[in-house]
């Protein structure tokens, strides 16, 4: 299945004084990629999720690897895939590359929950169907578990 793609040009605001990306900025970029994916690919904007739907999508776990630094002026192509979709959670994999070089790989589990009560909620059927367009076969060696 295809991955959702988003392009981010590394700007001064993303960098340490040395000109490489400040690691916490990658997590801001991840949030931007997810928000755009929800809006553009799933037709479910964050303004609706957290607004009229009264829901939230927190990460309950997240892991990152940084095989190479990104620098001011780099163009990062982010790819988002869904490794597993469950009743109220999904395991995402995001990676950012410049050309053929991987700069960061992030995996994590998002859980759909009620924003105030903090109880998990089942994915709306229409959203779950759209998510399947980005579902890839799980990595057999990982043994990753996610919340129901």
Structural commentary:
It contains 3 helices and 7 strands. With 148 residues, the protein is an alpha+beta fold. A 5-stranded antiparallel sheet has the order 1-4-5-6-3, with helices on one face. The chain has a two-stranded antiparallel ribbon with strand order 2-7. Strand 4 (75-85) and strand 5 form a beta hairpin. It starts with a strand and ends in a 17-residue tail after the last helix.
SSE layout:
Blueprint: E1 4-9, H1 23-40, H2 46-52, E2 55-56, E3 59-65, E4 75-85, E5 89-98, E6 101-111, E7 113-114, H3 125-131
Antiparallel strand pairs: 1-4, 2-7, 3-6, 4-5, 5-6
- The number of helices is 3
Strand content: 25-35%
* Mean pLDDT across every amino acid position: 92
Considering DSSP H and I runs of 4 or more, what fraction of the residues is helical?
10-25%
- State the total count of DSSP E strands: 7
Q: Return residue spans where pLDDT drops below 50 for at least 5 consecutive residues.
A: 140-148
Main β-sheet, spatial strand arrangement: 1-4-5-6-3
State the secondary-structure class: alpha+beta
**Separation of termini?**
23 Å
Whole-number radius of gyration?
16 Å
What composes the largest sheet?
5 strands, antiparallel
What would you call the shape? globular
- Taken in chain order, the helices and strands follow as EHHEEEEEEH
